[in-house]
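Run: sequence + inosine-5'-diphosphate -> complex structure.
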Amino acid sequence: DVGSRLVSTSAPERTLVLVKPDGVARGLVGEVLSRLEAKGLRLVAAELRTLTRETAETHYAEHSERPFFADLVEFITGGPLMALVVEGPRTIEAFRALAGATDPVKAAPGTIRGDFALEVQNNIVHGSDSPESAAREVKLFFPDLG
Ligand code: IDP
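>> structure
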């Protein structure tokens, strides 16, 4: 209808966003939610949970051979994180832009990582990097989501 076309002209897409344990511990859940809602992205699911080692290893399987893998799994299972499914036009790309570069020192000021983090591992948020990753990650975290 005309009203919804004024809000968006593209087909909606979903992505998995995590406010990582460092972001939760620092009280940045509201800040991340504010930024993605202000951008126009919509929340579809949200849950505070502590990951098992198995889920963490599955989520980061593509990094299993990297030297930082063991530390990354320790970090991501080290406390509760906020798992979100977010929907909107070009959401995957839109959230990656809000998050900023992986290395927070290189991330532009104005991005979440650029404004709130200094270390590459403890970089506050995760966002799926492709439609294939998004489908896999949404299913891993929210298997019952329709
Ligand atoms: P992304 O989260 O921006 O997509 P990836 O390269 O997929 O970045 O890395 C996944 C996560 O692994 C990063 O967000 C960060 O927490 C961690 N990480 C990436 N590279 C390094 C590193 O060189 N040292 C320590 N941790 C890293």
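>> summary
The mean pLDDT is 95. The chain has eight helices and four strands.
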